[in-house]
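WARN retry 2 of 3 for item q-0093 after timeout on previous attempt; input resubmitted unchanged.
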Amino acid sequence: MVRIGIVAGEASGDLLGSHLMQALKQKRTDIEFVGIAGPKMMSEGAQSLFPIERLSVRGYVEVLKHLFGLLRLRRQLLKHFLNNRLDLFIGIDAPDFNFWLEKKLKNKGIKTIHYVSPSIWAWRKNRLNKIKHAVTHMLALFPFEPALYQNAGIPVTYVGHPLADILPMEPDTAAARKALKLNPTGLVVAMLPGSRQSEVQQHAELFVKTAKLIYAEQPNTIFLVPLITRETRQIFELAMFHEEVSLPIQILFGHAHDAMEAADVIIVASGTATLEAALLKKPMVITYRMPNLSWKILKRMRLQPYVGLPNILAGRFVVPELLQDESTPEKLAEAALKLVSDTSYAAEIKAEFTKIHQSLRQNTAEKAAVAILSHLS
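OK item q-0093 returned
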């Protein structure tokens, strides 16, 4: 039996991991997976030694609050891997957690694959030396990443992004509206405040106030807010209560994809959801708020003017980004309404996002599986 250690840090990693596991199992039936996994990976047979939620912490200040628990968990995981035979390790994203683990395992002669290059092209290029000592092979999701690793002497394979394989080139807005029982002709605004509680805390009040302003201008609007946990739903509902609003806001339990596909425009917290919105060819306003200290640290380390994946992939500002102090209800509402009213701008966005979709569609899980299996005897 081949034993693969695998660690995913959040929902997006769980999705990547589940597709990768499917592709690996199709090629070899003698693989077992153990580490930290979410529900999708567990449904593919991964044994999760700790809950994935333990790793779902973002931002410098937030990580510091949970630091001792994370360090203890990482040591326990390493001990388990070293005490129980491991043929290969796959770290999925979660670079600050996984690179330490990968370096320790690599030093013990275990091959380490890292799936999802960290954002060295956005900040912290000095990480390349650290990565070289930790990673046997890097699997990169975006086409501009391999050159950075090749120049640093790190084996790398461009595998594309699995979302580009999954999502059709042409979204079916009418079908999505029908599935959600929405008026086929009204204005639909999807609002995605993030998946973590800390993100929803930052964005809930902002999004509710933005919805009030949009609704005042366009009273035929319906707002869709997909949230994935009871806790995040409560945070958003509390913001609605405090604002004393009576708006057509539908909070959905999950269904982020349906909400985005049904939408005319999306207001979205920066993260993986922006890429899904781009692959669905939707106009969007990218926003993000975080504690001021975390923002000041990150801002000093930024290497390029944009943070949203669609703009990074295009190499220019295709859609607006309103971050931190710029992220106000007035500016978000104005930007969203402009995207709805300016049809030529919307067409330009769709054309750019179609190009991005084509470049990322690479049969990702298959390519990643081939690269990984080349390291197994």
